[in-house]
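Hey, can you fold this one?
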Amino acid sequence: MEPDIYHIFQSIASRYDRSNAIISMGMHRQWKGRMVRTLTGMIPRDGRILDLCCGTGDIAGMFLQAEGSFNVTAADFSLNMLWEAERKLSGIPGEKRYSLVRANAMELPWEDGTFDAAVISFGLRNTPDWNRVLREMVRVTKTGGIVCVMDAHYPENVLVRGAFSLYFTWIMPLLGGGIKNRGEYRWLNRSARAFAGVAQLMDMMGEAGLTRRRYRKFLFGSCVYQLGEKAGKRKGTREDEGLDG
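Sure. Predicted structure:
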């Protein structure tokens, strides 16, 4: 039986940041920071950014504190996550340049070409239809704009994959959820194991209409961000493999 995804994220929202820091040994913010720094060099300084499946607002906060005057829309389906995000973002000094929206990732409420960039971080694999979410992200992004996906993957190397399987299956759920809530994190581990590989996701992004696709791997490929530019009327083509950023 499929788990109640909404209930999972509602229940872990209050400890989500702490759990992520423990699970990733503090590295997840470094990975997100590298991605944000790359994207800020590709987006107009006053650009509009969609942070989809925003969780507690890590990515949105990084964009708001980056050089430039980005306007960020942080969207999630979990009310508890949005409340945590509001608490985090409201503490950033300066003028308010963000909005929080409850939204379904597969039916985004914005018009075509609304944003200069759309980002989804550790969220795509937890949606029911990855292709549909990618198409929606591309739809609401301007032609020439950036769509970026960061997510957890099982490493491709067989030896490394075995060690990660042990960690993610038995240790990570206890570190993330403790005895009481380890079930939620066991499911998140299963979603990472079942998620598309990097090459498959690159192809899906191309089919969604993205060109000039690139990626960067962290920690043996357990975390990867992949980005592409929204093409005009033509489909994206399979291009570059690596990304420095």
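The helical segments are 5-12, 16-23, 28-40, 58-65, 79-89, 130-139, 158-194, 198-207. Let me know if you want another pass with a different chain boundary.
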